[in-house]
Amino acid sequence: MLLVLGRNMVVGTANRCSRLVLRPVRSTVAAAAPGRYLTHQNGLPCLPVPPLQQTCDRYLAALEPILESAELECTKDLLTKFQSPGGVGERLQKGLESRARRTDNWLSDWWLQAAYLDFRMPVVVHSSPGVVLPRMQFSDRQGQMKFAAKLIAGVLDFKTMIDAETLPVEYLGGSPLCMHQYYQILSSCRIPGLKRDSVVNHARDPRPPTHITVVHNFQFFVLDVYNSDRTPLTVDQLYVQLEKIWNSSLQTNKEPVGILTSQHRNDWGKAYVNLTRDETNKESVLAIQKSIFTVCLDAPMPRVSDEMFRSRAALQMLHGGGSHWNSGNRWFDKTLQFIIGEDGTCGLMYEHAPAEGPPIVALIDHIVEYIHTSGMVRSPMAPLPMPKKLRFNVTPEIKRDIENAKEHMNTMVHDLEVRVVVFDQFGKNVPKAQKMSPDAFIQIALQLAYYRMHQRCCSTYESASLRMFKRGRTDTIRSASIDSANFVKAFDDPAKHNTEKVALLEQAVKAHRAYTDRAIRGQAIDRHLLGLKLQAIEDLASIPEIFMDTAYSAAQHFNLSTSQVPAKTDCVMCFGPGVPDGYGVCYNPMAKHINIAVSAFNSCEETNAAHMAKVLENTLMDMRKLLEETPKAKL
User: Fold this and answer.
1) Residue 62 and residue 28: Cα distance in Å, rounded?
2) Across-strand partners of 460?
3) What is the pLDDT of residues 510-534, one digit of tens each?
4) How far apart are CA 28 and CA 586, in angstroms?
5) Residue 235, phi then psi, degrees to nearest 5
6) What is the CA 540 to chain-centroid distance, rounded?
7) Geometric angle at alpha carbon 18, from 425 and 567, rounded to 5°
8) Higher-confidence position of 430 and 540
């Protein structure tokens, strides 16, 4: 996903989710022997350090569509000086190459710190993505709990493969992909700090957790999900336990302690010290942090039209609707939170530090398949212990922290607009019929839609997976290119013939595809530039001029923060904009339709999520019309 590193974009942006389509392999690959995971990981190549001149040349090319010529000339001079023989660029490059020889992945630890743990904005809206599942066919608490029981069982079924290290290895173009992130998403949690956060993972503890956290009416419960013989609870056992939790949490006047996790990270860090000073509170917080995952049983939200249901559901996944609704029914630091509303709203949100989108989507696909194939088969019912209610002693100081968190959360809620649309005119089928990459086609449509709205090209982020490499995370696909700029400027020009427009579209799609291929092979520019900058900081040298240049700030100001997150399930991921005057756009291209989520901030007069979504839909149809009206074009 695209996580912004603060408003000043000091380091660049992190990605919310990787965009690669992975072959569904679970049903076709035999289970591996325990230990295969480590053997597989050790066989992966290390992330390369691209050549310095190559990155400088490609950086200059990436600036072309978004800078004026005078700015470009100034940056060109700075780059010439930066990469001169014996210059600062060469010294930093050698430092990076040395780091690469000493580590499995020269970037991953730096990336975790710079992109996530040093990031001080709230994880809500500004970092953590949500996933909206299709509306479920229930509208009461029994339906809610039956679904929750099946969902929990589905996650535990997936966890069995993680624990046994038998997850089938995923491949892309014949190359095996790093599976490390799959082993980071369960039993993990972010921990706030006063200046920097950390992440803990308890999955490899001598006695790993056997419980999940369930939260209802702002009250947290520990639910053991394994029997004494270490077998997971059955669906009907889980249902019985969820019933107990529901009946024990009918009071709604409890303080929403969980809303503290929605704060600015420095404020939450201070509140965390206050909260955990009390021993009871400390034990309750630790129980949440150690839990395998969290299930949020939400109260129903206000009714909306069927057309707006997914958009409202997206907001519920991202922030819970505010302090008067379900925002206190969360622990936003938890890596995985499954959200199930009494009105059939379903999905999840995840804290981004440990993983990108593909492991989350693979888990979702597994859960949905499990739910469809499992039934409420009655099994012999041994008496089960009552789930443990977690207690919090709320002092006046903690109460003040909670009230501040409510106020800030409600401000974020009012500022965020999300529009989810199901574009049903076509899906992957149309670009594929034209021998075009569906992702590239949609990205060029986004370029044209933005140009139509704002009459300029903008810096655009799309995440690319680096999982071909050991512990690989992401790099940036820069979708705004000189080729995409040529196309968008020509498309609505009546003086241009259709054949010329199609040729420009073809070239833009090819350029995007080529950039994508370079990115997934570790040859993109953004992480290399970040590495050079962090190397300079580590060497205690002054920051090189190219990183103080206004062009670098412009390059890192991603007005379009985008991700393709393909899934077998008919779902869509969503996230907030990367910058105050930008859009967050996530899409799941299905065979004959495309699920699209667009976000923007209401505080920015220039952006409008609903308008952007509509313009994007019209643009996609206009591009198809262009192709249909130009049948002789050799695509």
Assistant:
1) 41
2) 560
3) 999 999 999 999 999 999 999 999 9
4) 29
5) -60, -45
6) 33
7) 45
8) 430
DSSP 8-state code for residue 332: T
Sequence-distant (≥ 6) Cβ neighbours of residue 414 within 8 angstroms: 322, 602
- Taking residue 137's Cβ as centre, other Cβ atoms within 10 Å add up to 8
Report the C-alpha gap between 264 and 404 in whole angstroms: 11
Element (DSSP H or E) covering residue 309: helix 306-318
For residue range 203-261, list pLDDT tens digits in order.
988 999 999 999 999 999 999 999 988 899 999 999 999 999 999 888 767 899 999 99
- The secondary structure of residue 125, as a DSSP letter, is H
**pLDDT confidence bin for 346, thresholds 50/70/90:** very high
CA distance 272 to 189: 14
- CA 332 to the chain's CA centroid: 14
> Quick one: three-class SS letters along 496-553?
CCHHHHHHHHHHHHHHHHHHHHHHHCCCCCHHHHHHHHHHHHHCCCCCCHHHHCHHHH
For the chain, which domains are there? 39-106+424-628 (3.30.559.10), 124-416 (3.30.559.70)
Decide if pLDDT at 548 tops 90: yes
- Token couple for 94: 């050698």
pLDDT of res. 541: 74
Cβ proximity of 34 and 166 under 8 Å: yes
Longest dimension (CA), the chain: 78
DSSP-derived 3-state class of residue 503: helix
Count how many Cα atoms sit within 13 Å of the Cα of residue 398 in the half-sphere of its side chain: 19
Q: What is the structure's pLDDT at 378? A: 60
SS3 628: helix
Query: What type of residue is 83?
Result: Q
Residue of 343, 342, 364, 367 lying closest to 355 (CA atoms): 364
Question: pLDDT digits over 499-513, tens only?
Answer: 999 999 999 999 999
CA 69/CA 75 separation, integer angstroms = 10
- Give residue 37's pLDDT band: very low, low, confident or very high (50, 70, 90): low
Cβ atoms of 466 and 520 closer than 8 Å: yes
> Given CA atoms 534, 535, 539, 543 in this order, what sign does their dihedral have?
negative
Using DSSP's 3-state secondary structure scheme, residue 3 falls into strand
Catalytic residue set: 352
What does DSSP say about strands 13-14 and 594-601: parallel, antiparallel, or unpaired?
A: unpaired
Q: Where are the beta strands (DSSP E) in 434-492?
A: 460-465, 474-478
Reported as a single tens digit per residue, the pLDDT across 159-187 is 999 998 888 899 988 889 999 999 999 99
Task: Give the pTM.
Answer: 0.90
Per DSSP, what are the bridge partners of residue 158?
none
Token pair 């922290």 in the structure block, residue: 401
- Phi, psi (degrees; rounded to nearest 5) at 323: -65, -20
Residues 462 and 476 sit within 8 Å (Cβ to Cβ): yes
Q: What is the pLDDT of residue 27?
A: 26
Q: What is the DSSP pairing of strand 3-4 with strand 13-14?
A: antiparallel
pLDDT tens-digit series, residues 270-286 = 999 999 999 999 999 99
Q: What does the alpha-carbon distance between residue 145 and residue 341 come to, in Å, rounded to a whole number?
A: 10
